[in-house]
């Protein structure tokens, strides 16, 4: 097994498939104890293959092979060879029909890959390599085939039988019935889908821009029918948006979504039959938070957008995963921005990137947006591929401008429709429409790590010029010791006393895109292409404050020696929402750094008064400035998270970070009580709940204020939290209040609220998951022992990924002060769960390992304990490739 675990696949070794599959016919005889799969593959040798006379080698895993035939003639056991993961036939014709029959047991498939049972329904998850657990096939994305699928199942147990494409016919005989589905669009097998169960549905219609009628259905268990309307609304909004913004029209007469309770991912974009985790489709105000509604909207849009950026044009190999995922994340982010607040959405996405993806870039699993090697592809469904990949697409849009970018996507879709292509093909389309040389830009795909951009400014009073000197560097990452300069689009403005100054460069920077200059010439997108460059602005009448990386124009760590007063200026006056928020974050980081330093030296703790003044001014401006978005104010009032502070640290002092942040919250609450209370009361709402941008903004601000007030745990604050918990008609306010009470020292109120919440919602699995999570992330001492008790709760099921994420994942990833306990018990707990889950669901087990993989950033004692737990996992004799890869890479250099 160790040999299999150590096998590494390299991008450089890619070669075209030896065979192609023009048509695929599948027959499934679904049953409770075993399922029979018969496949008929219409195959031919690939004229572009490197080996003209290659043997036929098909992928297959955990299959019981019952028969094999070529062109209708059954093969004997001596005519083919079967191993644990392959079926091989030495000699086959140029063109032939391959047939086989396999037997599988979906009810025992706890990996949730391939065909498996979720509660009472059959469903599939084939991306990346799950199809090989269904039947023997060329399980790779560059083999595209037209599918016809026949499903047979018990009519009473499985009245709904679904697959990709259009329903051709239905029939019934005795206790069983049959459905035949045909998908006319060639697709790789990772996009195959099957669902069979006793499901109800809601139905709607959408008329495309060319006048075609599309039937829309969302299938769920009957008890969940009342939670589907928002997903349907989001689907129709996404379909319209994709037509208007990208000119992409849906191409079949039916689009189905199915909600599944046991699912490793958020959702899957299978052609015309999207399968969703229930958490990404079910929503109603009483059970779903504002964030939950936004997640439903974003995930529904993401999977729908894949119909073009992923399905019609797919990736040639799994190294090109960001071709579809990074592009589609960018598309769904822009959609969500248009549906709500663009600035808030941008800040939320940047926060995720800077906290988690930057940490991934700096860790042992660091890899480029287009990886050059992997052992297990499921480990590369990462923030780097998705979120950083999205930022790479955004940079292209920043460099080309919206009009040329749209022309580039049009060319990409039209040129590659029906094909499996590469990231280079995407960039090439952008290069052709713009006439720009993007060769250097492609380093974003091949070089790992987060570039650091150091900037200094110099004002020459006599020459009335202002010079920005820009230096870029990128630290070594595993397998890449040296980095060439990136092509970085750096959006800048200069603020004077009266506002933004008009900009004119003394010498035009190389390839400066003048299309990116706004009409008032107050912002420029500079092309940073060298290790060190200088940009000189002329006719600058005063010493400016530079506004840098506006809109977070590139995924870099920017360093500029701002004074705290300059940061306050940017907070108050910058017209760029991201830069205003970021200035506040930088000011808070500096202030918290003072507190941490004092704590380490056992000195009296004191918070910089400028931070409190900045927050006070921000709240005061709400009453006089109608343009201020309450949601943005709530974000600006939120201190940097403990995770972000840890990411910034050279060596993480978990206790100092936690103490400093709690002290700051108490100081802000103490000195701003009056305005916090008045803001809280002013944003109370009596109108019916809506997940609208306006209401979401007011709730986020109201709960930000109450959270500060609860830091003091005054009787008035606790009473307000209890009242909000008891009286609110929406889960957003209920969960906000419950979180505050759970983290308070008021044991009576805490236990009463937890008991009441569970009593009310124990029949709603997704709500119970929220109940689990709020307890797993409680920062109070003793939480680890409580988490261990939660795992014995009747509502917890280790086989359900959502519950594992809500308890184990939430504790290890979001509760640093308890996970990093000095005795190492948190580390032992996580290692125990990884070892247990490795046997049930290797994907989930591998994804839990992230916190232990970051041992390099912690003090010696913690580092030794984390390494010891990784070595304990490594010693397991039956490690899956998923877990083995993460453990081995995490231990490198230990």
Structure write-up:
By secondary structure, the protein is an alpha+beta fold. 41% of the residues lie in helices and 21% in strands. It has 29 helices and 32 strands. The strands form eight sheets. An eight-stranded mixed β-sheet has the order 6-5-9-3-2-12-15-14, with no helix packed on it. A five-stranded mixed β-sheet has the order 17-18-19-21-20, with helices on one face. Strand 25 and strand 26 form a beta hairpin. The longest helix is centred in the middle third of the chain and has 24 residues, at 577-600. The two termini are 24 Å apart. Mean pLDDT is 96; it is low at 1-5 and 509-518.
List the helices and strands and how they pair.
Elements: H1 2-6, E1 9-10, E2 19-29, E3 35-45, E4 56-59, E5 64-70, E6 73-74, E7 81-82, E8 86-89, E9 95-104, E10 114-118, E11 121-125, E12 145-154, E13 160-163, E14 166-173, E15 176-187, E16 194-197, E17 200-207, E18 213-220, H2 229-246, E19 254-260, E20 267-268, E21 273-277, H3 290-305, E22 313-315, H4 321-339, H5 342-361, E23 373-374, H6 383-400, H7 402-416, E24 419-421, H8 423-434, H9 443-446, E25 452-460, E26 465-473, E27 488-496, E28 499-500, E29 524-528, E30 532-537, E31 545-548, E32 557-559, H10 564-573, H11 577-600, H12 609-621, H13 630-637, H14 642-648, H15 654-671, H16 673-682, H17 693-710, H18 715-727, H19 731-742, H20 747-761, H21 765-776, H22 783-790, H23 801-814, H24 816-819, H25 825-840, H26 842-847, H27 850-853, H28 860-874, H29 881-891
Parallel strand pairs: 2-12, 18-19, 19-21, 22-24, 25-32
Antiparallel strand pairs: 1-23, 2-3, 3-9, 4-8, 5-6, 5-9, 7-8, 10-11, 11-16, 12-15, 13-16, 14-15, 17-18, 20-21, 25-26, 26-30, 27-28, 27-29, 27-31
Helix pairs in contact: 2-3, 3-4, 4-5, 4-6, 5-6, 5-14, 6-7, 7-8, 10-11, 10-12, 11-13, 11-15, 13-17, 16-17, 17-19, 18-19, 20-21, 21-23, 25-28, 28-29
